[in-house]
Sequence to fold (329 residues):
Amino acid sequence: MFSPYVVSVPVSGAVIIGKDLFGKDVSIAFTPNAHGVILGSTGVGKTTLAKSIVVDLIRSGFRIIAIDCEWHWIEFCRRFGFDIIELDKVVFDPFCIRSSDELEVIHNFLIGTSLFNLSREDVLTLYDVCSKVFERNGAVSFNDVISYCPRYGGLRVLLKELEFFMRGKQIIDLDLLNKHILLQLPVGGDTEVHRFIIYLFLAQLFAKYMKFITDTPHTFVFIDEAHRLTRGASQFLVWALRTVRKHGFGLWLISQDPHSLDRETYSLTANAILLPGPRKYVDSLKAYFRLSDEDEELLLSHDRGYGIYIRQGVGSVRFRVKVHEEVLT
Fold:
């Protein structure tokens, strides 16, 4: 159990997510820690609430990055003018490195992932290849990695999978995309290579802002179905939660399985929205959150449209969810 939670006081610029039992607005304050989780069983409105939060964030001038493997976001994102990367058709260069910051962040990803059973020796070898190419050319590409990286151990499987994944796809430059981005995985796109690509995408995105230090967020990343997409990358996720908020990022994880995120992940997220679910789900929440009898009763009621908002270090409040009409059509 980490520190007690208390009710968040609405502040200027915060996003209102509903009303409490007394009819007062319940809002999310996105500074100084903009990270959060939305938890709930299937069909209780996690994605709907996340989209409603996104509508407010877009209207307030923030940049949004959404990652989806269930095709729940694509029509919504089209209406709001997102650039859409459908990974079954187009892809970015996963090892596009143009600065020392990008090289450092990709190194942090590699040492923080268990994907493809990469050993410490594999990681050091891959990083050494990238470092030497960067020192010689001032940039690194996927073709450089394929050309110069030895193929043994976990690297042999990784490079083979990446080559197959990249084959025949249009390669786009992330720097040329517009403000908001949806990374859309294909159906069944929670495979090891897809998760590897996702986190290289985030590593490149984070690296572009590492030189800027700020307490005010400018970009929010929403990962839907996080219980499927975070496997094998929990250490990198912890590094990101610790590091990127200082550079203007808020990272939001949407999951139906509380145990898919570890205790350290929860301790680094300032905001938690708990939506209803069955007894097994509610019992799993109790491993990470302090719930009263009234909280349990609300969460077990299966009443769609109700939830509990928790702000770390401030408190918790039961509320009725408010969503924008745009996300219901």
Remarks:
- The radius of gyration is 20 Å.
- Residues 5-87+178-328 form a domain with the Rossmann fold fold (CATH 3.40.50.300).
